[in-house]
Amino acid sequence: MGATVTTANNEEKTWGGGNEPLAASYGKLMMWFFIVSDALTFSGFLAAYGFSRFKFIDTWPLADEVFTHFPFMHGVSAPMYYVALMTFILIFSSVTMVLAVDAGHHLNKAKVAFYMFLTIIGGLIFVGSQAWEWKNFIHGEYGAIETKGGSVIQFVDKDEKVKNPFQTSWGVSTRLIGGLIMMHSDDKGLVLPPKIAPIQIVIVPIANTKDDKAFIEAIKIKDILSQNFSVKLDDRVDLRPGEKYYEWEKKGVPIRIDIGPKDIEKKQCILTRRDTGEKEICELDNIEEYTKKLLDKIQYNLYNLALERREKTNTKADNWEEFKTKIQNGGYVFAHFCGDKECEKKMKDEIKVVSRCLPFETEAEDGEHYCIHCGKKSPTNKRWVFAKSY
Ligand SMILES: [Zn+2]
Fold first, then answer.
1. I need a surface site. Which of 166, 199, 247, 259 has the fewest CB within 10 A?
2. How high is the pLDDT of residue 140?
């Protein structure tokens, strides 16, 4: 590079030390000035970083998410590659800066301008990249969720790693629980599908004390089944079995296993399905395999029942009279609609019906179709979903 070192060769007195104030040359002094000021500046930055990290611990960018992607390429995991690129750009602009200074020593104006220009471009890219990362990850736009209060939501998963929650516009609320109860229940209480049941199997030993054979056998069954399922052993000996049955039925546990002294003699137990109430005899040796299959059966049965019920209550209407009758009968009615707010308002005033949605998977129907209420031509030829509002 051939950088030159400037020496101050004048005879003026600097702090009374002449050309060598503090007994050091101008170049050496400048070097120390540079090192000390750098050290002070960066200590300041580090201290500020440390304090703000503690102050804003909840809203701080998530370490796991920062610099794991290239800008505008989210979803493509490229950990640290972007940092490597930024580092390269930083080193590159340091070099162009040195070259600009060197060109200045040679009084080459054009070269100074050129290298300064490159330095500025490199600097802008570097600082811009930092700003981009900070902006996006502070707000958790990609991955983390920032709450209204400014906290960032994360959770520790089964594998003990910190993860971001899945995001959806559908909140799990009492309404969803209500829907579950309405869809999956009978006169005895809840009928929970195995896949969402907090307790999948309950074991009720027919025993008077905790030393009874049946009780000990029940513990064995629990140990076997707990490896794959969520199992509860009803170990209360002060309640009669009938009272326990009633309680677990009400709570909707998919399978109840009863085991008494006679069953032990036969090396079997009795399984009762919550969905159908049917009792099945199972050999103790085969309990694991048997319950797995039975849980699958119950899940499948409940799903089909729910689907059937939904299909039964989803109806189509092609004229206003039919529409009105079907809406009064309850359920969802699929009909063509102009999409007009005013038209919908009139429908609401007349029979309290509102449009619920235009399902994504709906296919446009052949031919021309007209609004069920005002008779205007449908812009999409797709059926909207309507239901009474309560
Ligand atoms: Zn209309």
1. 166
2. 47
Q: How far is the CA of 348 from the centre of ligand 1 (A)?
A: 12
Q: Indicate if 200 and 276 belong to the same structural domain.
A: yes
**Ligand 1 geometric centre to CA of 325 (Å):** 18
Ligand 1 centre from 358 Cα, in Å?
14
Euclidean distance between the first and final Cα of the chain, in Å? 81
| pLDDT given for residue 129 in this prediction | 86
What distance in angstroms lies between residue 368's CA and the mean position of ligand 1's atoms?
14
- Poorest-pLDDT segment among 57-61, 199-203, 219-223, 268-272: 57-61
Query: The domain spanning residue 350 has which CATH number?
Result: 3.30.110.30
Q: Which of 201, 192, 250 is nearest to 224 (CA)?
A: 201
Q: What is the CA radius of gyration of the chain?
A: 37
Domain that holds residue 27: 21-138
pLDDT of 102-114, one tens digit each?
999 999 999 999 9
pTM over 0.70: no
pLDDT in tens, 158-198: 888 777 676 666 667 788 888 899 999 999 999 999 999 99
Q: Using the mean position of ligand 1's atoms as its centre, give its distance from the Cα of residue 355 in Å.
A: 11
Listing DSSP states for 78-142 in one string gives -TTHHHHHHHHHHHHHHHHHHHHHHHHHTT-HHHHHHHHHHHHHHHHHHHHHHHHHHHHHHTT-S
CA of 345 to the centre of ligand 1 (A): 10
Residue 378 Cα to ligand 1 middle (Å):
8
Report the separation in Å between the CA atom of 376 and the middle of ligand 1, taken as the mean of its atom positions. 6
Please indicate, yes or no, if residue 280 is contained in any of the structural domains: yes
